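Colleagues,

Please find the record for the two-part complex below.
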Amino acid sequence: MTSVEVWRNPRVLAWAYLSKVVQGPCAPLTKLVEEVGPEEAARAVRERDLSEYLGERTVARAHVNTAAQDIELVAQMGGRLVTPDDDEWPAWRMLAFDGLGHARTDGPPLALWVVGSRSLADLTDRAVSVVGTRAASGYGEHVTGEIAGDLAVDGWTIISGAAFGIDGAAHRAALGVGGRTVAVLACGVDRAYPAGHARLLRQISQNGAVVSEYAPGISPAKHRFLARNRLVAALSDGLVVVEAGWRSGARNTATWGRRMGRPVMAVPGPVTSVSSTGCNRMIREGEARLVARAVDVVEEAGPVGLGACDEEVVRETDSLEGNALLVYEALPARGSQSVPGLSEESGVPIGTVRAVLAQLELDAFAVPTEEGWARSR
Amino acid sequence: MTSVEVWRNPRVLAWAYLSKVVQGPCAPLTKLVEEVGPEEAARAVRERDLSEYLGERTVARAHVNTAAQDIELVAQMGGRLVTPDDDEWPAWRMLAFDGLGHARTDGPPLALWVVGSRSLADLTDRAVSVVGTRAASGYGEHVTGEIAGDLAVDGWTIISGAAFGIDGAAHRAALGVGGRTVAVLACGVDRAYPAGHARLLRQISQNGAVVSEYAPGISPAKHRFLARNRLVAALSDGLVVVEAGWRSGARNTATWGRRMGRPVMAVPGPVTSVSSTGCNRMIREGEARLVARAVDVVEEAGPVGLGACDEEVVRETDSLEGNALLVYEALPARGSQSVPGLSEESGVPIGTVRAVLAQLELDAFAVPTEEGWARSR
């Protein structure tokens, strides 16, 4: 389709409308769209023909319809709206779950606004996220440059959040070696955020992609950074934190990564450096594995990222809920975990974990091993 | 006894004679002395009334008897020969073993030459070894000072090897806060090695102890450094490597520590610093846990070091040999290990490990746990 055809296509317009209305992750809407399609879902939103939760979640912006303008604006920037209809829709190897009554909306995005000419699926086929503090030290920027540069030379796409400090150094390192890089934003792709990175963002879109689940015109906000961090983790085969404080966006990204079974890595630094506090402590607490060089990263991120079977995993495990899903989630992506470990990870009591594991084994989701329990392959 | 009485005491003279003849660790001689006493063992050595191995091991120096002079020399320095006869003999929480036919002479020393007025048992009751490279960076020396100083203030004895670099910084940090410190030498206590640390060694003996299993007059040599490293590990409740290369004496000490079930810790550093290569890699490979501050060290080393029951453990496990001992040794001091993990650690095939574990369980040396196998308490 030409861009004119796209923004007159009623199905595409429905995706764009829904993206603008919902503004960020909303698993129930994603589910509704899967069931009835985007056009019927858009009708239901417009006409307030929804469940109570979805009704509340969409009421404030249901009357807004800037779909055609949004599509045109992004098209003028060299971009498009990528949806599950498209071949380039990434294979989301993460599980939406809503355990223990928390509304954890960490499912795949509804759709993604993408500026850049390459296929998003290709870009994220072999990808590592490199993230860290805005207040990077010279050491942090140097090591980011080394690791991200070497990974990019090796054909890995570098994903980051376009922030100042480590993020910017990671994107620049990939660009510097003619590699590929993806910036995931917490605002519309029409907004250059941070403004000081406007030129960098243009370069990124020319050599990779600038991506957001937020429609054009949407401003960055705290909850959007957190949701954006989940996409940084979800689009990658592994995650490297170079420098970070203990309570930091980078550690939030790492937490998402761990929850999604991604290898989480951290670069150590001087124990006297505030910028390395988070990384050193993540390594100490077993939240991240120490990496010093790109080759260490490849060792961790290399073996996973096999897109083909992952859609399957997502579909199968859709049937899991409650404690079963929590315990399944706690099983490591590779290797095994003990029953006490699973209890600690999932927050489910040991006795219940045992009962749930028996059922998971019957349903072929889990297998006992000599070290504990593992996911079935 | 006054010092004159000591060096006329035939039993003490026998210990001193044996120490000079054997020069370093020799489990069969230690065992012979345990069985027949030092005087009878000394007679057997003098008269060549020995097993073939012990005969060969002692023939070169059996004619040397400088026992009285050695005792007098060390007494003049304010020292003494400490033996299993003495109340201050440390509770050696390490196991002598000789598995797979290797003559691994990592048992307790026969006796120790000690300069310093404090009881060796008291000094090593709550002790942490702090070791590292001679080629320390400013960062390494600074962090050593912080960690060793804080530990010494907290009442921990700092044990190290009196070398330049990290070792020296560790001793100095303890002395600087009026704390206690022990230097373990790879030569006689009458030799100041390195010569540049002669004054430091005097200060250490005044505020703690300078210790060696080598009799006066014996020079440092490579194999003595390795044997010395085993004592640095054995005398401590935990071991901290601050800066070290990958193939280094400090890592050798850490290996001894791990083999003896001591918590092994390492301080991370910049991945760009050669001096931190060994520490970062030990953390990455799971050989050491990352520590950044004294409080991290106490968390690791604190709960162990309860001398009372350890003699018991040594005695009980004396009955183990061959694969049984190798597998028992591979069981972690705390927590559990899986059967494949035990196989990898012990070098014993998986099938044999299973058979051995069954016997160890019957003999109350090991218990199955949810995560694998653990030592019986």
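Chain A is about 45% helix and 10% strand.

Comments are welcome before we finalize the supplementary table.
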